[in-house]
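Quick log. Single chain, no ligands specified.
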Amino acid sequence: MTAFDTIAIVDWSAGKRAPARPSKDAIWIGVVREGAEQEPVYCRSRIEAEGWLAGFLDAEAQAGRRVLIGFDFPFGYPSGFVRHVTGTDDPLAFWDWLEARITDSEAGENNRFDVASEINRLFDGPGPFWGKPSEEGWPDVPYRKVGVTYDSFAERRACDLAAKASSSCFQLFFNPTVGSQALMGLPMLARLRRRAGVSVWPFQNWAEAQTVLVEIWPGLIEPAVKEVQSDGIRDAVQVRLLARALAGLSSERLTALLADVGPEAKEEAWILGAGHAETLTFAARGRVALEPPPLRNDCFALPAGVDWTPVDDALALLRERMTPVVGVETVPLMQAAGRVLGGDVVAKRSNPPHPNTAVDGYGFAGEAIGDGPQILPLVEGRAAAGAPFAGSVPTGHAIRVLTGADLPDGVDTVVLDEDVRVGDGQVAFRGPLKRGANTRKAGEDMLQDEVALVAGRVLTPADLALAAAVGHGALDVRHRLRVAVLSTGDEIVEPGAPAAEGQIYDANRPMLLSLCAGFGFEVVDMGRAADDRAAVRAALDAAAARADVILTSGGASAGDEDHISALLRDTGAMQEWRIALKPGRPLALGLWQGVPVFGLPGNPVAALVCTLIFARPAMRALSGAGWAEPQGFTVPAAFEKRKKPGRREYLRARMRDGRAEVFKSEGSGRISGLSWAEGLVELPDGAVHVQPGDPVRYVPFSSFST
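-> predicted structure:
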């Protein structure tokens, strides 16, 4: 029992009674009932909203409809907090503790700061609650967070981090804040949960409950809200779209979201849909193909004070900030291979749609018991794939069936051709044979309305087979990510052209173009730009007009001729990441006319390593396919290597006789080593002395293409 007939989303408020005319900062409730969107409900006070919800639950229960209600404030607190206050780890005990203390009125007058003061007095020192309307009142509640520490428990829950929520449940004032909403909302939930048939996710067993209360935040669908915010009051838009998003998910997909919680959920609660913002946003749009918003200018900004960046930290920042930049289109199924799936594919019919036979043979009803001979009279006719038998097979009779044929009425078991003899209108064979042998059940592969393929998947030929089998002739896919590749420098010339003294051939561009094409992206060759500020600017302008991402090589450092860095810095969107790795530590990141730019080192070895380690997963996320780590393997080394601490190193390597060999020279200008190699050996950040036979991590180049 998982499907819900009605979805309701509540945008709560800790403010005073709202005006009679619908306005912001009030309580809004969005409802989708049996697929039909209702007009958002406006409540002027918490008491009015609680009364409406109680009546709503009664009406839905009487109508036999199952309900999921989402609220936009925390259901729990960081692990350790509730025990400190109540003496137990049960989060619902704190709900009851609050209900016994919080007072409220129809006018919105309440004592939440007094209750926060009582809680703060249970702790040594200030906090954990802070923020208030004025510095003078409630001396036990700090006005600002200065001096408040979170030593015995975290400031934010695990689900807040997973959902990238910006607010803390301990912040009671100043935007953004949800702390006051929680103090004023949890007592109401404590009363609602005592009603018959109500369960709280994820604290209680909710699978069979008539009404399920969940925590969910409108910020998960912020891109969809921004697109239509001008259509009305933001709070009303949020609850309408979020209710639409949940109602638009298949039962299986919603079940998967409800099951996707962290280990801390039983104590801290969880935000429904945390980590699945793209899926919810797409559903909130009603599956309309819209272009996603551009990246922000500060998307590559490092935290204050960060200089040298460890590889893992750099990857974590990219993973957090890279979001899809390409829209969705519908293409024929036959053209969808290699594309990124733009939305969940839900089975239009079961596969197989009917019970059928898995072999050529003879079908009958029941099972053949014992080892003796079984002799059954044959019904005239046969069942073949695409040519089903029109009649019914009586009990005690058999019929000829061919592989893939729908089982005729009365048939549930098939005996193989090789195990029978046929003559005189009869078929003979020996048992035993279990009921259902050599048959396939309807839907044993995929049931109707089940999610067959999940959004963000890079479609394979096998995926197309599955989509076709469940009834789809066209699929919603992301536009291919367009990647422009630009080389810079007076010293480089086109491969094969005459090269003057001091000039080198452009090795990076053919390498990067073919590499990105192998990733499944649409590549745009921007050629070469001389070491001239105006020429580089013009090339970047042209690339931004034609592509979704720009890869440049050369000019990414801080020298006189490093024009990529200088131009990006002029726009205010330049970030120079000095990565603690070898080779390729300088990596220029920025936006040019809203298009992300990866300024790679000019050295081909460093350019390849930076592309594989940093640009490749970032571009995958930008394409809508999500972040993916390359698969590495622990193998014995066939080399000796001493490494100092401080930087992660990537050595050109290949596997021979079950051991990882590395290229004879670590020189980053040795392009022959790239051709020789079949992958990389990754050495950790710390000091290491690798000797033959020691385990090392080997990442084949093929792992970067998936």
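The mean pLDDT is 89.
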